[in-house]
Amino acid sequence: MDDQFTGAAREGVGRVQDAVGGLTGDSATQMKGKLNQAAGSAQETYGKLSEGVRDTLEGALETVRGEVHERLDTIETYVKDKPLPAVAIAAVAGIVLGLLLRGGSRTIYLRDPR
C-alpha cells in the first residue's frame, strides 16, 4: 500500500513539473516531470502487484492451514476410536524411523588381549 501511495504522489508531482515546464518553456523541468510521472506510475503498479501477490499467498496459506487442521482432526478421531491399532502403527513407524536414522553399525568388537 505504501508503494501505491508514494507512486501516485510522485506521479502527481511529475504532472505538476511537466505543466510548469510547459508554461515556462523550461524543457529540463518538463522532462523531469515526465520522468517523475513514469517512475511514479511504475512504483504504483509495483505496489498493486505486490499487494495482489501477498493477498494470494495469504489465501493459499489459509487453505493449507485448514487442510492440516482437518487431517489432524481425522487422526485424533482415529486414535480416540481405535487406540490399540494407533499404538501399533506408531510403534512400527518408530522402529522404522529408528532403523533409518541409526546409520552404520555401531557395534564395538573387543579382541582378546592375548
From TrEMBL:
<keyword id="KW-1133">Transmembrane helix</keyword>
<comment type="similarity">
    <text>Belongs to the UPF0337 (CsbD) family.</text>
</comment>
<dbReference type="Pfam" id="PF05532">
    <property type="entry name" value="CsbD"/>
</dbReference>
<keyword id="KW-0812">Transmembrane</keyword>
<dbReference type="InterPro" id="IPR043605">
    <property type="entry name" value="DUF883_C"/>
</dbReference>
<keyword id="KW-0472">Membrane</keyword>
<feature type="transmembrane region" description="Helical">
    <location>
        <begin position="84"/>
        <end position="101"/>
    </location>
</feature>
<protein>
    <submittedName>
        <fullName>CsbD family protein</fullName>
    </submittedName>
</protein>
<feature type="domain" description="DUF883">
    <location>
        <begin position="77"/>
        <end position="101"/>
    </location>
</feature>
<dbReference type="InterPro" id="IPR008462">
    <property type="entry name" value="CsbD"/>
</dbReference>
<dbReference type="InterPro" id="IPR036629">
    <property type="entry name" value="YjbJ_sf"/>
</dbReference>
<dbReference type="Pfam" id="PF19029">
    <property type="entry name" value="DUF883_C"/>
</dbReference>
<feature type="domain" description="CsbD-like">
    <location>
        <begin position="3"/>
        <end position="54"/>
    </location>
</feature>
